[in-house]
Amino acid sequence: MAKKIKLPASMEFYQDNTKLKWVILVVSVLISFGSIYYTHVLVEQLKGREKQQVVLFAKALEYTLMNDDGNIVFITDEILFKNKSIPVIWLTKDNEYQYVNIDINEAWSAERKNAFLRIQVEEMKDSFDPIEIVLRDDSTGEIFGKQYVYYKNSFLLTQLIAFPYIQLSVLAIFGFISYLAFNYSRTAEQNQVWVGLAKETAHQLGTPLSSLMAWVEVLRDDPDIKNKGIVDELDKDIKKLTVVTERFSSIGSTPVLKDENVYLLINNVVGYLLHGYHLKLILKSTHFQKPYKLVCMPHFLNG
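^ thats the sequence. predicted structure below, dont judge the formating
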């Protein structure tokens, strides 16, 4: 029975990463919906309170238009002028716009102000139904006019509506940055493992390369092989293996860029392949019982 290999804690953490991602995703979705729902409840409560304030404002306005007694000063000071946050526009019986808490440049002309207020009234109609003010004669009860009060959410309520989405956007950006940092950390750790493996491979290749160099010197003294070019080709291959070993050992180091002649590089590669082809012919004519085959030889050299 095969023995189960116990992985390091860091590797087990990465293997369980999928489950952890799902847990974090579910918790994030629950927190997001909970935040939006709770904010929605608060917004609805504040909307109801602001509507009550506008209704009170409309009743106070109606009272001031229909009466002329000592209570008007109190109503004007304590109700009409106390509204400092809710934008309100009402249309008088002479079709003139009156407003409070509307940001208008006083330097504008009357036509520009009216045009701007008409646009605001259309936006308010889309948000809430206007509150009707009915003007009646106290003695006869006859209706002699109507006015309409338009309003929209205060700036504070608008901010509260947008707050959860801004908050979740910030959290999403923070989570995305954290995810990138986590992935970068994991990739860096994996790269360190590959760097260590490459350097260890280069170190282990050094021993057989040293042995091959010694055998090449032995073959160089053999009179049957000395003048056939075999030793020179083996020496070139050993040098190439040495270059590969050095490249493995330099993995993870800061690369050094230098200019190269592309023509010479291609010429060296072609020359190496041609020498390999000639080496194949030499090996077939020697006293070796099982001549070697160059399996990597290009097709155009096999003719």
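Residues 18-153 form one domain.
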